[in-house]
Amino acid sequence: MSETVTAKKARKQVQGEVISNKMTKTIVVKVTRRVPHPRYKKIVNVSKRFYAHDEKSAAQIGDLVEIAETRPLSKLKRWELVEIVKSKTV
After folding, report:
1. Domains and CATH numbers, the chain
2. Contact 41, 52 (CB under 8 A)
3. Distance between CA atoms of 88 and 84, rounded to whole angstroms?
């Protein structure tokens, strides 16, 4: 008998800056990537906003956080907070 092993796919993880934490258990994270322009090849910054689940409401505005892909939690939330990489010092 041959056993079939189902390998789990690794979840995507990205780092970004928290730009909003005004919602309950939700943060908005801005992820900035440096990519070459399709025509001119100059390196440009491209940013995108992700809504992430923050169970303990630990992240504050300005924190550098790592988020990971997860199942859909609401209409917009498809990411969850993994860790706070660098906390903003006040």
Report:
1. 25-86 (2.40.50.140)
2. no
3. 10
Q: Could you give the C-alpha distances from 78 to 4, 20, 48, 61, 62, in angstroms and in order?
A: 29, 16, 14, 20, 21
CA of 51: how far to CAs of 3, 10, 73, in Å? 39, 20, 10
Could you tell me if 80 and 70 are in contact, meaning their C-beta atoms sit under 8 angstroms apart? yes
Please state the separation of Cα 9 from the chain's center in Å: 17
Q: What is the chain's pLDDT, residue by residue, as a tens digit (90 residues)? A: 566 666 677 899 999 999 999 999 999 999 999 999 999 999 999 999 999 999 999 999 999 999 999 999 999 999 999 999 999 866
Tokens linked to 59: 């992240």
pLDDT at 17: 97
Give the whole-angstrom CA distance, residue 63 versus residue 11.
Answer: 22
